[in-house]
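Summary for the steering committee. The consortium agreed at its last meeting that each partner would contribute one worked example illustrating the joint modelling workflow. Our contribution is presented below. We chose a case with several input lines so that the handling of multiple components could be demonstrated. No manual editing was applied between input and output; the record is shown as generated.
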Amino acid sequence: MPQSRPANPPHSQQDNSVGVVVPQVYRHDKPLTLQCGVTLPGYELIYETYGTLNAAKTNAILICHALSGHHHAAGFHDTAEAKPGWWDNCIGPGKPIDTNIFFVVSLNNLGGCHGSTGPRSINPDTGKPYGPEFPNVVVKDWVNSQVHLADALGIEKFAAIIGGSLGGMQALQWSIDYPQRLHAAVLIACAAKLSAQNIAFNEIARQAIASDPNFFAGHYATEDKIPDKGLMLARMIGHVTYLSDDGMREKFGRELKSGDLGRGADVEFQVESYLHHQGRSFSQSFDANTYMLMTRALDYFDPARDANDNLVEAVSKASAKFLVVSFTSDWRFAVERSKEIVDALMAAGKNVASAVIQSDHGHDSFLLPIDRYTKVLQAYLRRVAQEVVGE
Amino acid sequence: MPQSRPANPPHSQQDNSVGVVVPQVYRHDKPLTLQCGVTLPGYELIYETYGTLNAAKTNAILICHALSGHHHAAGFHDTAEAKPGWWDNCIGPGKPIDTNIFFVVSLNNLGGCHGSTGPRSINPDTGKPYGPEFPNVVVKDWVNSQVHLADALGIEKFAAIIGGSLGGMQALQWSIDYPQRLHAAVLIACAAKLSAQNIAFNEIARQAIASDPNFFAGHYATEDKIPDKGLMLARMIGHVTYLSDDGMREKFGRELKSGDLGRGADVEFQVESYLHHQGRSFSQSFDANTYMLMTRALDYFDPARDANDNLVEAVSKASAKFLVVSFTSDWRFAVERSKEIVDALMAAGKNVASAVIQSDHGHDSFLLPIDRYTKVLQAYLRRVAQEVVGE
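What follows is the complete predicted structure of the assembly.
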């Protein structure tokens, strides 16, 4: 009789987990010229893979991360890790991004602070960390750097490139710049460009960081300081915009942290306590220069700009099929913004599916296991599998 | 032949301006016990009046100000003043709050920084400015302090008490606490209590101020410093939430301040430049401790809390008639929040009129001369005049 699994195995050993994963590093030893005109002498990208690349190399999916994301999207770095990767509910055996079918690649973007070349890396010209001297990186640069990673992995054409928020922008840019290299693009909670309100929130976050006396114009590492208060504020601002008014009402209401109102204590409402905690833990792990860089990349994204401000013209080069998903309570990248993308793709005669998902969780919805969202992704990717892998 | 007026007289001499006004100070020499339990030995309120109080003293209107407002609501302090008071488009001869009919009282609230007793005032116990030691003041306290001003002016019953945003909360509190002392309450862009999202934005603003190294836990005056960067951030956060996404899109779009994108300049989009300007000028004039106090008063406001969390029960004591006005694009105090007030007033059997005004200008709409809004206010107050003054 075969030995049965323990009743409650650790998460990393559960059937639908990709288990323990080991990050790898791709080193690009040739120069990369960025959109800002600066040439990096080379760069490294840290990445993880889940599932197995088939012999024909047709079953690869690329995951592009959002503002504060990184390469660790699924599984565990070791069996003791308390929380799995940031999209573990979506990536794994039998999950929507099914690692029984697909080979999934997830990286940390250039300019990041989780292991890829970025402001914390050593500038070979000076022997010191780049810090604020790290060049401006935009979405097109990320796509270009990801193409080299795909080349190194022998992936000529991705079955799908998938991303939420800033990740969706990368998937869209891929479809425009490298139309032959992806079969499908999945754009989730995304926009073809930021609104003035989006830019304003990003600018306030940057201003919060820049105003921190420990920022030293970005040279905080040299001073052995961390602009943690500024980063904390930046994260708090961001976080409120990722949630919805209704979702926050449901989660926190006006619950008091303790006792009675009006005594002027520092933190009186649960929502304040929650935001402080979120902000503080973020400020301990994220790099301030990377935050500046990533928010700027968000602001700059505007593929129509290179096509006479005409999004239809911009996407006309794409040959991928598209799935565009948005969430009813997302006010940072509202349903209307996704509709603009859908309309442009339709006008350009592309193959577009779209879904508006009912959710109270605001922009954060794209990270959550919402039933209809999960089903839509699963159904779409099964179809993709049939088309490209024949499974 | 009578001498004609010059073609373009200064604003202060135009027919529909209340002209030059001189602020007055009401000194209350008796103790005032606040909701937080602290007793102020006395206090001063700076105020202005426009129009003439009739012999029966039945034509008085009280204007309650919002978060960053003050007593100077209409007219000019001198003929050289570039801009009139903050609600000049609404108050004056022939305007909705018609000074040919009404006697208008507008004050700076207790705890303010424009001349009323507040954190900048000298604490008689110490001979030094109160600073952060100024006691917590809530909406009920403002109403109580305003009652004494009304008594001093001989006004037994206001024809109307009118306010937008935090000002509307004061009008609502008046109607509950002093039902016999107002004929009508006009609540504009208001809410019966803040949502978790509202509280979160306020907390981030406070955190921005508290994080400024020049804040010195509120004792910045003693240190001869101003936490201007924190105040600037706080105002920028507030300001974005007062505007709407659509309104900002229309006003700024993604217009660049100059030249090309992506070179990493500090300010590249017009919206950034605008917010910086707004934040900077606010930080030069407003008191940080007052900002803390006023945002806390917003957070704490919750009249239903004293009535078993039942708003219908809370407003049941009111005898005023109500006009409740909201604006379609206001997401800080959304139309839905006004509807909650209307529904509660209706359920309590009160006389309620309401209007939802189409506007792209977000929460700021309540300050703007929007045609239908102006007409609604004018019509409602003409009716009030007929009822209480017989005009």
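Chain B touches chain A through 53 residues (CB under 8 Å). The first strand of chain B starts at residue 24 and ends at 28.
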